[in-house]
C-alpha cells in the first residue's frame, strides 16, 4: 500500500518521517505490535512458554522509518568502527557465505603451517532481549555517531507495547520489557554494535560471528592445547559479556576438531568442558545453515539440501495436481524463487560433488516436468527449453561466478572474505608509479 501511496504522492512519506528523524523521536503509536502465538511442532508437552513461538507483526510505517535509520546507521558503521570487521551479519555486502569462506580459509591456512585446528561454536542467549539502552547509547556517543540517530535510538528502545493473539486472549495492549524487538529492520544492527566488544584479539586464532552466532577457532601443535585455549577464550568472553548483560547459551555449544583429508591419524575425541558440562567433537555440525565436517566434505551438506528440496517439492505438488491448482506460470516462478535456493544453498562456498550432483539433476528434471506436465521420456534439452529453466549444472556455475564477481568487486574493508584475497600484482615488466 505504501508503495502505491509513494508513487501517487512522493512527498507524503518524507513529510511524515523527516520531522521524526530530525527531532530523534519514535512515537508511541508506532511501538504497538501484535503477537501471534504459535505452538512449536514436535513438543512432548505444551505446559511451558518455551513450547510456543510468538510471531510479532509490527506497524508498516514504523518498519519504513526503521529501515531508513538502519540504512543511515550502517553507512556510519564502517566510518566510526561500530562493528568488528569479522561480524558478517546485519550489514550490506556481507552474508553467511562470507562467514563460511573466512572460516574455511583460516582453517586451511593453519593446516598448511602443520597446526592442529579446533573451533568452538557459541550462541548468545536471548541476545536481543538483553540489550541495555544506556550502555548502547553510551557506545554510540563514544564512537561519534550523529546525535539525531542516538536520540532516535533512545526513543525507539523504550515504552514498547504488544497485544498477544490466541484463543481467549485479552484485546488490550500490555507493556513489554524487550529492549530490542525481534523482526525490526534496525534491531539486528543495534545488537551487533552492542556485542562488538566480544571480538577479543588472540594470537593464532579467529573469532568470526554472524549476529548472535560466534565461532572461535584456535590453532596449536596439539588438540589438547586447543582445548585449553578454547576454555580460556570462553572464560574471557564470559567475563567481557557479563558487564553488558550478555551471556552464552552453553547447552547449544558445539565443538569440532578439523583435520586434513590426507591425515592418517584417528579423529580426535577430546571434549571441552564449559561450566561443568562436557562437549565432545562432532562429526557433522550445522552452523548458519551449512553442514560442516572435520574435512570440509560437502557431501553431507548437499545431501541435506537435496532432502529439504524434495520435501518442499512434495508439499507444493499437493497444491497443484495435474489439471488443477496453480497454473504453469506460477509453478515456473516457484522453481527459481523457492526450490532452487533450497537446493543450491551453499553452492557459492562448495562445489556439489559428482556423487550428489547426479541426484540433484534428476530432482531438477522432475521440477521441469512438474511445470510442463510432460512425460518422463521427454528429451531433456527440449524439457529445459519448454520449462524456461537452465540445466542445474549451468545454474550452479552461474551462481558461483556471480559469487566470485561479488567478492572481487567488494571493498576489503567491507567484506572479510574479500580481505583475504591476494593483492593484485602489477603486470610483469612494469613498476608501480610513485604516488
Order of helices and strands: HHEEHHEHHEEHEEHEEEEEHHHHH
Question: How many beta strands in the DSSP annotation?
Answer: 12
**Biggest sheet, spatial arrangement of strands:** 2-1-4-5
Regions with little confidence, pLDDT below 50 for 5+ residues: none
User: What value does the average pLDDT take?
Assistant: 88
- Percent helix: 40-55%
- Total of helices: 13
Strand fraction: 5-15%
Radius of gyration from CA coordinates: 25 Å
Structural class: alpha+beta
Report the end-to-end length measured between terminal Cα atoms. 53 Å
Shape designation: globular
The major β-sheet equals: 4 strands, mixed
Structure description:
- With 435 residues, this protein is an alpha+beta fold.
- The protein has 13 helices and twelve strands.
- A four-stranded mixed beta sheet has the order 2-1-4-5, with no helix packed on it. A four-stranded antiparallel beta sheet has the order 6-7-3-8. Strands 9-10 form a two-stranded antiparallel sheet.
- The longest helix is centred in the N-terminal third of the chain and has 20 residues, at 60-79.
- It is globular, with a radius of gyration of 25 Å.
- The termini are far apart.
Amino acid at each position: 500500500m505504501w508503495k502505491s501511496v509513494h508513487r501517487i504522492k512522493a512527498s507524503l512519506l518524507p513529510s511524515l518521517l523527516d520531522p521524526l528523524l530530525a527531532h530523534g523521536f519514535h512515537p508511541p503509536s508506532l511501538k504497538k505490535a501484535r503477537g501471534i502465538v504459535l505452538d512449536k511442532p514436535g513438543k512432548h508437552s505444551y505446559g511451558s512458554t518455551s513450547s510456543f513461538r510468538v510471531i510479532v507483526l509490527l506497524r508498516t510505517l514504523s518498519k519504513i522509518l526503521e529501515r531508513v535509520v538502519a540504512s543511515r546507521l550502517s553507512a556510519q558503521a564502517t566510518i566510526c568502527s561500530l562493528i568488528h570487521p569479522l561480524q558478517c551479519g546485519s550489514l550490506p555486502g556481507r552474508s553467511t557465505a562470507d562467514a563460511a569462506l573466512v572460516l574455511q580459509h583460516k582453517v586451511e591456512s593453519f593446516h598448511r603451517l602443520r597446526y592442529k585446528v579446533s573451533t568452538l561454536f557459541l550462541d548468545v542467549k536471548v541476545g536481543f532481549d538483553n540489550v541495555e539502552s544506556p550502555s548502547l547509547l553510551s557506545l554510540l556517543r563514544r564512537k561519534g555517531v550523529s546525535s539525531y540517530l542516538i536520540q532516535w535510538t533512545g526513543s525507539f528502545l523504550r515504552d514498547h507495547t504488544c497485544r498477544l493473539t490466541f484463543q481467549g486472549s485479552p484485546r488490550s495492549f500490555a507493556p513489554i520489557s524487550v529492549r530490542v524487538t525481534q523482526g525490526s529492520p534496525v534491531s539486528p544492527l543495534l545488537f551487533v554494535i552492542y556485542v562488538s566488544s566480544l571480538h577479543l584479539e588472540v594470537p593464532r586464532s579467529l573469532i568470526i560471528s554472524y549476529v548472535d552466532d560466534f565461532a572461535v577457532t584456535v590453532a596449536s601443535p596439539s588438540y589438547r592445547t586447543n582445548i585449553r585455549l578454547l576454555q580460556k577464550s570462553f572464560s574471557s568472553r564470559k567475563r567481557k559479556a557479563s558487564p553488558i548483560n550478555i551471556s552464552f547459551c552453553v547447552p547449544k555449544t558445539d565443538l569440532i576438531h578439523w583435520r586434513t583429508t590426507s591425515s592418517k591419524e584417528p579423529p580426535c575425541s577430546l571434549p571441552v568442558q564449559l561450566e561443568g558440562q562436557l562437549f565432545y567433537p562432532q562429526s557433522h555440525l550445522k552452523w548458519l545453515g551449512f553442514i560442516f565436517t572435520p574435512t570440509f566434505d560437502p557431501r553431507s551438506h548437499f545431501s541435506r539440501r537435496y532432502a529439504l528440496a524434495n520435501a518442499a517439492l512434495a508439499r507444493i505438488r499437493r497444491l497443484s495436481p495435474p489439471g488443477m491448482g496453480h497454473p504453469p506460470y506460477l509453478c515456473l516462478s516457484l522453481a527459481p524463487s523457492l526450490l532452487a535456493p533450497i537446493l543450491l544453498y551453499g553452492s557459492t562456498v562448495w562445489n556439489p560433488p559428482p556423487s550428489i550432483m547426479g541426484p540433484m539433476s534428476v530432482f531438477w528434471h522432475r521440477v521441469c516436468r512438474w511445470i510442463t506436465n510432460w512425460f518422463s521420456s521427454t528429451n531433456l534439452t527440449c524439457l529445459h527449453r519448454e520449462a524456461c529453466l537452465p540445466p542445474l549444472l549451468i545454474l550452479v556455475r552461474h551462481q558461483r561466478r556471480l559469487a566470485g564477481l561479488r567478492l572481487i568487486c567488494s571493498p576489503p574493508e567491507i567484506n572479510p572474505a574479500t580481505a583475504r584475497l591476494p593483492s593484485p600484482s602489477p603486470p610483469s615488466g612494469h613498476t608501480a608509479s610513485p604516488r
